[in-house]
């Protein structure tokens, strides 16, 4: 008799299924808990620049481009306007103080000069005529007074005699009174004539004083106009080199217009353009160095121009004891401008990464050098060669310092 065989629940097949499912669950759990889920990107190691973080002296300086300029430049401006009739010298010529450079012509100035000169002649004639009239008037008045004095003397003599005779009744009272009135009238007339003479003389003196003042002012104006006439010839104010003259014969020049400049050849300076980022750190007295023909020369900041233009400002630097031989105006060269003293620091070589991260993070290689991981850092000062690392990196670590533009925002780079 056949016996029914019971089928086992945990057979081989079921055990395999359950075991596989459990293994899958364990694998998923491990991936969820322990696996690296950061975004990754495969890169070619030889296509990036890897730099080593070091400990060393940090030189606080910047490299800027400077141009050689004369120590002193004198602007050549037109004192008087006109049009150019002759050009004596061209740009680049050496000049001595007083040398003629241009000659201008101005008809208006010339006519004013002639008119003022004519006015002076008129005033001189009027002044001389007034003085002459005063003398003539004085002589006439003196003559009149002398004649009156004679008449008064005669009338007084007759008056005195008739005064005695009237008492003796030899002369009538009527006759006596007539003599008396004539005598008193003459005395009164003389007083009026004396006052008139004094008034005439005082008035003439006032006129002479006024005319003299007008004449003096007009003569002063004429002297100024002579200077204006002389200014129609543009002359070199100092010895030096006429570096430029920006007008030609026939050009119309207005008063105050710049005609060119003269360079004082007794010395040179350099003018550098500095990024506005450093405006608070650049001041007079800072030192710099400059290489020329194999020699190194020291410079000192003597002037800082505060105006910011196109994201930069200018500074003037003077040479120290030694000035390079053979240096010429207009030459340009990089100079090293010291912003502070050297100090020990953790150094990260500069590179294109900064423009992509702003110095807030970098890719740091792991110990095996197989991958680079994104890490936050803090950078301090910067010079053309290095960044000063404040936090986030240690000496000996390796960092990708080339551009991160193609990496997107990946957290891990695998080589």
UniProtKB/TrEMBL annotation:
Main localization (coarse): other
Gene Ontology molecular function: transmembrane transporter activity
Annotated localization: Cell envelope
Bilayer-spanning residue ranges: 15-35
Coiled-coil region list: 208-235
Keyword Coiled coil belongs to the record: yes
Gene Ontology annotations for the cellular component aspect, listed alphabetically: cell envelope; membrane
InterPro entries for the chain: MdtA-like_C (IPR058627), RND_pump_MFP (IPR006143), UPF0194_transport (IPR050465)
Transmembrane helix recorded as keyword: yes
Multidrug resistance protein MdtA-like C-terminal permuted SH3 domain location: 345-403
One family name in Pfam for this protein: RND-MFP_C
Signal sequence interval, chain numbering: none
Database matches in SUPFAM superfamilies: HlyD-like secretion proteins
Source domain of life: Bacteria
Record key words, sorted: Coiled coil, Membrane, Transmembrane, Transmembrane helix
NCBIfam families referenced in this protein's UniProt entry, alphabetically: RND_mfp
PANTHER family per UniProt: BLL5650 PROTEIN, EFFLUX SYSTEM COMPONENT YKNX-RELATED
Protein family per UniProt: Belongs to the membrane fusion protein (MFP) (TC 8.A.1) family.
Protein name: Efflux transporter periplasmic adaptor subunit
Species this protein is from: Chitinophaga parva
């Amino acid at each position: 008799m056949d016996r029914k065989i019971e089928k086992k629940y945990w057979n081989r097949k079921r055990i395999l299924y359950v075991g596989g499912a459990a293994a899958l669950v364990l694998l998923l759990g491990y991936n969820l808990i322990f696996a690296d889920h950061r975004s990754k990107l495969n890169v070619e190691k030889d296509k990036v620049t890897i730099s080593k973080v070091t400990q060393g002296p940090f030189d606080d300086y910047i490299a800027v481009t400077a141009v050689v300029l004369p120590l002193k430049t004198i602007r050549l401006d037109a004192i008087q306007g006109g049009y150019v009739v002759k050009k004596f010298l061209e740009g680049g010529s050496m000049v001595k103080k007083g040398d003629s450079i241009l000659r201008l012509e101005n008809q208006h100035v010339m006519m004013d000069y002639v008119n003022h000169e004519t006015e002076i002649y008129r005033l001189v004639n009027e002044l001389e005529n007034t003085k002459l009239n005063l003398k003539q008037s004085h002589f006439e008045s003196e003559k009149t007074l002398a004649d009156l004095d004679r008449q008064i003397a005669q009338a007084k003599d007759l008056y005195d005699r008739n005064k005695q005779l009237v008492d003796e009744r030899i002369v009538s009272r009527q006759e006596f009174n007539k003599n008396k009135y004539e005598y008193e009238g003459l005395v009164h007339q003389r007083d009026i004539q004396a006052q008139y003479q004094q008034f005439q003389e005082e008035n003439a003196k006032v006129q002479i004083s006024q005319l003299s003042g007008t004449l003096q002012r007009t003569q002063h104006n004429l002297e100024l106009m002579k200077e204006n006439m002389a200014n129609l010839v543009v002359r070199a104010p100092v010895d030096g080199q006429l570096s430029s003259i920006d007008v030609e014969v026939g050009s119309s020049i207005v008063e105050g217009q710049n005609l060119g400049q003269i360079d004082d050849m007794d010395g040179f300076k350099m003018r550098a353009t500095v990024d506005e980022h450093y405006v608070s750190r650049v001041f007079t007295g800072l030192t710099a160095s400059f290489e020329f023909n194999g020699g190194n020369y020291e410079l000192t900041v003597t002037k800082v121009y505060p105006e910011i233009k196109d994201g930069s400002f200018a500074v003037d630097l003077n040479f120290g004891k030694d000035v390079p031989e053979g240096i010429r105006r207009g030459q340009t060269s990089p100079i090293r401008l010291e912003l502070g003293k050297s100090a020990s620091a953790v150094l990260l070589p500069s590179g294109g990464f900064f423009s992509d991260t702003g110095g807030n993070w970098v890719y740091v290689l792991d110990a095996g050098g197989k991958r680079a991981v994104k890490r936050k850092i803090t950078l301090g000062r910067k010079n053309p060669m290095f960044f000063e690392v404040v936090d986030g990196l240690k000496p000996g670590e390796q960092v990708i310092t080339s551009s991160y533009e193609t990496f997107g925002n990946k957290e891990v780079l695998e080589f």
